[in-house]
Amino acid sequence: MSLNMDRENTAFTFKGGMLPMTVMELSSADPEEIRAQLVSKISQSPAFFQHTPVVLSVEKLDEPHLALERLCAVCRAHKLLPVAVRGGADGVKQSAWALGLGWFPPTEERARTVESVPAVVPAEPAVDIAVPGGGRVYRGTVRSGQQVSAPDGDLVVVGAVNAGAEILAAGSIHVYGPLRGRALAGIHGDTDVGVFCNELNAELLSISGNYKRLEDIDPALLGRAIQVYLNNDHLYIEAL
Amino acid sequence: MAKIIVVTSGKGGVGKTTSAAAIATGLALRGNKTIVIDFDVGLRNLDLIMGCERRVVYDLVNVIQGEATLNQATIRDKRTENLYILPASQTRDKDALTPEGVERILSELKEEFDFIICDSPAGIERGAQLAMYYADEAIVVTNPEVSSVRDSDRILGLLSSKTRRAEQGNDPVREHLLITRYNPERVDHGDMLNLDDITEILSIKLIGLIPESEAVLRASNQGVPVTHDNSSDAGQAYADTVSRLLGEEVTLRFHQAQKKGFLSRIFGGRR
Ligand SMILES: Nc1ncnc2c1ncn2[C@@H]1O[C@H](COP(=O)(O)OP(=O)(O)OP(=O)(O)O)[C@@H](O)[C@H]1O
Ligand SMILES: [Mg+2]
């Protein structure tokens, strides 16, 4: 056995990834209250609760002692999978680690006020059509704070995706209009999908977790019609 | 039955209260029985801009909590017939506003008025959401800067999902864009977003454009809504806005930089 690790033999590689993640912003620390609300939420949208990973945000709480273990148990009992905790005092951080959860520092002041209202508001389009094969056609402007997703197929937006909006698809994303927000294609790991738009000004482009921020995009491509594709884990943006 | 119009923006300090006061005044001057309600509990200043701060006895929260009747709390404007003000509380907690309380007040007022103008607090929290919840129409106040446009976009998203009309699947809230503090010279210099950029991003109908104007400052210090100053640019721009709100076609003014004439070059100033 050799200690020399050549590339063939690596067991894994680390990669930067950007996955859509649900933040559960707690406004109560009482596990029973949370349980009650979860029960009513499940009856409204059962599809959401399928071992969905969530980040428990305790930023809004002013409680030095949290029954973190019980909170996690309540979540798991309702098919939510806590993967990390955000915010809270040092004690919260320690108990998160003790429970095998990650810990994130609290978000900065401004982001906090914006998120205290539903983190994302599902957009209400003028026309919204499910197409065969799990895709979705959305006509209208996707606005800041709104999220439109096609969790099972391609997403077509006929209209603008404004800054601060987020669109997601298991398949490809087509925007017939300016793309100024975040576009994440291949959210379940499909690497053969693409992002296409009429006018590129995106805050973030991602295919299967490989992403580019606005800052990383060649300024010469801004404002143009483009396609984005993945090749050997590298994201390419090309004028159309 | 009254039309309920919310004046909202997301971002603070863009001119909501100024606009709510000016538009309510304009509607009343045109013969519509109008009431303007301050939803900014804790930071009330509509009464200052309307010049009635010394006549406030009861407020919105008193009415909601049953400590006063609507009649006791509404203040009749001294200058303008048909115009009434329902002030906010300076001292109460924001949570004193409840959806049921607001609904009860609005439905009572609806019988009696032609227009109910709701001056929303800044932000997208409870207070702002309550101010918009029962609205039939919304005036989204936007300054020509990126952060203001972004916040207006966010508010438009909420208008299409977090209002009673949206929740009950009725006709959507009618959305109007009101651009305020527009300074054509600075727009030409590229310091501010221009009219077309703003309307392109927000893609809703423009109801008016109010120039940056000293008349506004003067008006608010005197407690007289700027609509009364009908020789000023801002006063005229608000009057145009009111006409459009009433369904008239009015050509847009004040969006182009003035070519300075000989006299104004010598004496300065534009008005
Ligand atoms: N067209 C204008 N020209 C010059 N100054 C203006 C104009 N419109 C508003 N202002 C000034 O901007 C400031 C904020 O206005 P106003 O109080 O109406 O904003 P607001 O949106 O109600 O603020 P808040 O979010 O705090 O309630 C005031 O000082 C006002 O005089
Ligand atoms: Mg105000």
Task: Write a concise synopsis of the structure shown.
Chain A has 240 residues and is of the alpha/beta class.
Summarize the SSE layout with pairings.
The complex is a heterodimer of chains A (240) and B (271).
Chain A: E1 22-25, H1 31-44, E2 52-57, H2 68-77, E3 80-86, H3 90-98, E4 102-104, H4 109-115, E5 121-122, E6 127-131, E7 135-139, E8 146-150, E9 155-158, E10 166-169, E11 173-179, E12 182-185, E13 195-200, E14 204-207, E15 210-213, E16 226-231, E17 234-239
Parallel strand pairs in A: 1-2, 2-3, 3-4, 5-8, 7-9, 8-10, 9-11, 10-12, 11-13, 12-14
Antiparallel strand pairs in A: 6-7, 13-16, 14-15, 16-17
Chain B: E1 3-8, H1 16-29, E2 34-38, H2 46-49, H3 60-64, H4 70-73, E3 75-76, E4 83-86, H5 99-112, E5 115-119, H6 126-133, E6 137-142, H7 146-159, H8 164-167, E7 174-182, H9 184-188, H10 195-202, E8 205-211, H11 214-222, H12 233-245, H13 262-267
Parallel strand pairs in B: 1-5, 1-6, 2-4, 2-5, 6-7, 7-8
Antiparallel strand pairs in B: 3-4
